[in-house]
Design brief:
Shape: globular
Radius of gyration: 21 Å
CATH topology of the largest domain: Rossmann fold
Number of helices: 10
CATH class of the largest domain: Alpha Beta
Strand content: 15-25%
Mean pLDDT: 92
Oligomer: single chain
Length: 361
């Protein structure tokens, strides 16, 4: 889900006036009905009225509280690589959101590109997907992508991603805000990973950490896991890759006139990264989240580069995995995608030990 800056201003309350206030009031009406539905559903699992199915192998879940890009996919990749280094057969479970005609969506395509030796099982029914991964791929560990709200499949570790630039979705449930469920549900999580820690001030980060420490507390949790863990991470640019396959250091963006485009959940973070790298952002275009590119978009890219006299066209890896198979794209000069990886800056060893402790059970 991607929102324009204008929409974000309305939801956050930064937009003032009668029109913005009316929009917020109207959006609060369906949110008022949605909130108790979520509460009842969570309570039914908390009290055992609904059953969570346990499979025969450990399940690690990576999810979030809000809609939009929080860094789930890079964290799934990080965990899978950790498990593969230990020689474990791991599979990823994903629902394949907005995938069409049995084709990969952008997250799934990115996972396959980053994890060529890891089966990606697409099934909206997470329990059926887990059984399929075990039966068909002999998986010994499962990583559940975007599964915090999908409670029907029991998990051994819940990892929740929290974007520091918008941690709690403007403190309102959808559609009034961006929260999928109340932030108090963070108490179900075992690990909170703060992403984009480098994009807020240190005092803001300290305040956010204190708030999350309080939200994580769950007196009813009698599990044998270590104490709740807060991990800090950044989205680290590691390379710029051209459409012809050449690889360049991110520093080469310095001083370049850049036209940026993307179809992701948090485009502002992408643009901020390009600016931090020294790029002169002379124009941008924001496609809808999970946008599917076609030949006509290749013509658009050529037009934009000419119109803005841009040195480079730059997009994200999630966009590139969908663009690369469009034949006209190969002929576009100076088209680059920015490769970003998760860099854990605090709590890396503790997270690794927590994961390994579960595997030793």
């Amino acid at each position: 889900m991607r929102l324009s800056q204008k929409c974000r201003d309305v939801l956050s309350g930064q937009a003032t006036g009668c029109k913005a206030a009316l929009i917020r009031f109207v959006l609060a009406i369906p949110a008022a009905f949605y909130k108790p539905i979520i509460h009842i559903r969570n309570a039914s699992y908390d009290h055992g009225w609904k059953k969570a199915y346990k499979v025969s192998v450990p399940v690690f879940c990576v999810g979030n509280l809000t809609v939009g890009g929080t860094g789930k996919t890079p964290m799934v990749i990080w965990i899978c690589r950790l498990l593969r280094r230990r020689g474990l057969k791991v599979a990823v479970l994903t629902r394949g959101y907005k995938a069409k005609n049995d084709q990969d969506n952008d997250e799934t395509a990115l996972l396959r590109q980053a994890l060529p030796d890891v089966p990606i099982v697409i099934n909206p029914d997470r329990v059926a997907g887990a059984r399929q991964a075990i039966a068909e791929h002999n998986a010994k560990v499962l990583v559940l992508d975007d599964g915090f709200q999908h409670r029907r499949l029991a998990r051994d570790l819940d990892i929740v991603m929290i974007d520091c630039t918008c941690p709690f979705g403007y403190d309102h449930i959808l559609p009034r805000g961006l929260l999928r469920e109340s932030k108090t549900q963070l108490r179900r999580a075992h690990v909170a990973v703060l992403s984009r820690c480098d994009m807020i001030e240190n005092d803001e980060l300290a305040q956010l950490q204190t708030q999350i420490e309080q939200l994580l507390q769950n007196p009813k949790d009698k599990s044998e896991l270590p104490p709740k863990l807060i991990v800090h991470s950044q989205h680290q640019p590691v390379a710029l890759l051209a459409s012809n396959g050449s690889k360049h250091p991110p520093e080469e963006l310095q001083g370049k006139k850049v036209f940026a485009f993307c179809g992701i959940g948090n485009p502002q973070a992408f643009e901020d990264t390009l600016t931090k790298l020294g790029g002169d952002l002379i124009g941008h275009y924001l496609f809808s989240d999970h946008y599917v590119y076609d030949d006509l978009d290749a013509n658009l890219l050529r037009d934009w580069r000419s119109q803005y006299n841009a040195d480079w066209l730059v997009t994200t890896e999630k966009d590139w995995v969908k663009l690369k198979d469009i034949p006209p794209i190969a002929s576009i000069k100076e088209l680059f995608w920015l490769k970003i990886e998760t860099r854990i800056t605090q709590g890396k060893e503790e997270l690794g030990r927590t994961i390994l402790k579960i595997l030793e059970k």
